[in-house]
Amino acid sequence: MSRWRVIVLSMAVLAGVTLTACESSQDKAKRIQAEAVANAPKPLTIPKPDKELKVQGTTLLHDQNGDAVVIAVKNESKDTVVNAPILVDLRDAKGKSIYKNDTPGLDPSLNHLSLIKPGETFTWVNDQVQPNGIPKSAKVTIGPPEGKAPASLPELAVSPPKLGHDVSGAKVSGTVTNKSQVDQVQLVLYAVARSGGRVVAAGRGVIKKAKVKAKPAPYVIFFIGDPAGTDVTIEAPPTTLQAAPG
After folding, report:
1. 46 in a domain, yes or no?
2. Whole domain around residue 162: which residue ranges?
């Protein structure tokens, strides 16, 4: 083999190696991008609605402090429902979707029902709605529960609400006593004000930790809407059902 042929062959081999290396880098970049897309947080979806969780009523509220959606849900099953997803699609007068609570990373209490006992009707509130327009209707979809209830549920006692007002608006305050053996973490309270059976105001509050064998934990809930002269009910379904191991 001549010297020139050896050089030409060597250059061809080198070019092939360079091309292969270049293609390998592209493939690696594509693989990394595909993995990033696959592992990215996904919007909440409900492929199949739950047939035994029925929407009994929906109310849209608005005032100078923002918007809220209030949904009454009845558990028609024989089991306690734990952590059922609830998706809300708010629409304007033309039927255009202007808000959905399916955003990745959203606080679970804003798109899940933490707990509903058999035969119970629970009034769920999302007071952090941010519609891109004026909502006129709501499409609500509730999915199958994602959790399982323990044999014994934590017991909580909520004091009667005391109505008040400050620079942030109308509010109710009170306490929650944890009578169970399980500390409640990020306990969400739902306040609903009714006049003549109609929902006219609602809000939600959070207690970071309601410990067992401790003093009653205080709560404060601000409203969307005007609760003056109404009947206010407070619901606080347990969010922590079992004590952490150890």
Report:
1. no
2. 156-235
Number of structural domains, the chain? 3
- Spatial CA neighbour of 204 closest among 43, 61, 92: 61
Q: What is the pTM of this model?
A: 0.82
Cα–Cα distance between 122 and 113 in angstroms, integer? 9
Q: Which of 112, 142, 172 lies at the terminal end of a domain, its last residue? A: 142
pLDDT digit string (tens) for the chain, length 246 residues: 544 444 444 444 444 444 445 566 666 666 666 665 456 568 899 999 999 999 999 999 999 999 999 999 999 999 999 999 999 999 999 999 999 999 999 999 999 999 999 999 999 999 999 999 999 999 999 999 999 999 899 999 999 999 999 888 999 999 999 999 999 999 999 999 999 999 999 999 999 999 998 999 999 999 999 999 999 999 999 999 987 665
What's the residue count for the chain?
246
Q: What is the CATH number of the domain that holds 194?
A: 2.60.40
